[in-house]
From TrEMBL:
<keyword id="KW-0521">NADP</keyword>
<keyword id="KW-0963">Cytoplasm</keyword>
<dbReference type="Pfam" id="PF14748">
    <property type="entry name" value="P5CR_dimer"/>
</dbReference>
<dbReference type="Pfam" id="PF03807">
    <property type="entry name" value="F420_oxidored"/>
</dbReference>
<dbReference type="InterPro" id="IPR000304">
    <property type="entry name" value="Pyrroline-COOH_reductase"/>
</dbReference>
<keyword id="KW-0560">Oxidoreductase</keyword>
<dbReference type="InterPro" id="IPR036291">
    <property type="entry name" value="NAD(P)-bd_dom_sf"/>
</dbReference>
<dbReference type="InterPro" id="IPR008927">
    <property type="entry name" value="6-PGluconate_DH-like_C_sf"/>
</dbReference>
<feature type="domain" description="Pyrroline-5-carboxylate reductase catalytic N-terminal">
    <location>
        <begin position="4"/>
        <end position="98"/>
    </location>
</feature>
<dbReference type="InterPro" id="IPR029036">
    <property type="entry name" value="P5CR_dimer"/>
</dbReference>
<comment type="pathway">
    <text>Amino-acid biosynthesis; L-proline biosynthesis; L-proline from L-glutamate 5-semialdehyde: step 1/1.</text>
</comment>
<keyword id="KW-0641">Proline biosynthesis</keyword>
<comment type="function">
    <text>Catalyzes the reduction of 1-pyrroline-5-carboxylate (PCA) to L-proline.</text>
</comment>
<dbReference type="GO" id="GO:0055129">
    <property type="term" value="P:L-proline biosynthetic process"/>
</dbReference>
<dbReference type="GO" id="GO:0004735">
    <property type="term" value="F:pyrroline-5-carboxylate reductase activity"/>
</dbReference>
<dbReference type="InterPro" id="IPR028939">
    <property type="entry name" value="P5C_Rdtase_cat_N"/>
</dbReference>
<keyword id="KW-0028">Amino-acid biosynthesis</keyword>
Amino acid sequence: MGTKIGCIGGGNIVRAILSGVALSKNYQASEIGIFDINAEVLADYRSKGYQTYDSIEELVENSEVVVVAVLPQIIRSIMPQVKPVYSDKNVFITLAAGISTEWFSENLGEDAKVVQCVPTLTAQVGMGAYAVARGNALTEEDYQKAYHFLTSSGIVEEMPTDLIDDIIPFGGAAPAYFYHIADVIVKEAVSMGIDGNTALQIFAQTMKGSAEMLMTSEESPKDLEKKLLLPGAATLAAINKMVELGFDDTWSEGIKACVAQAKNLGKL
């Protein structure tokens, strides 16, 4: 029996996306197929009701939307398995950083229908934020198939093809920044005698609310920040110290490094 969605690779990002999809109930587990080289991974998915395939060829032949969820370093090695069996029924969603829709056209075929996608781990809780770019061979009907799947676990924002790698530090990589900051804050809280879990819950809930304000307020991030930077306030002291220590420059350079590495991955 065929599947609506087939995933080449069943690692962390696919688990996160499918967890979010399950929350939406837009797809049944039996409508989603998985191929992975790890037999234990396949057995785990099978136990949850997903279909599993013994080969990439079998998955591609039996799936409408094919999610290519392998590392950029690996993607070239699987094309000889994909190329002989893909057809015009297949729509590919590629999650590999630095691998463009043009790359698929060159290595798979000019008629390959491809959506390049930058995913986020936050899809796991139904709050994914996907940046996507359309390949030239994609029809609107094809795109809607990919769009429906992705919006089952988050929002989708379309980007020009030549900017898709540049968005990675603001989406795909961004959760790592947040988790890193949370780790620093919790450690500092514990050093002050505050319960670590209490500090984490307060911080995470505050960030969750802050994100909601950014998405719904008509005020800019800078305007919202100014509301907290009152003369003599503890918050102002914190921001001033962080800026003094190079906070802004650190973020700018980190973003540039992320983009540079994403583009480099496409050349490996």
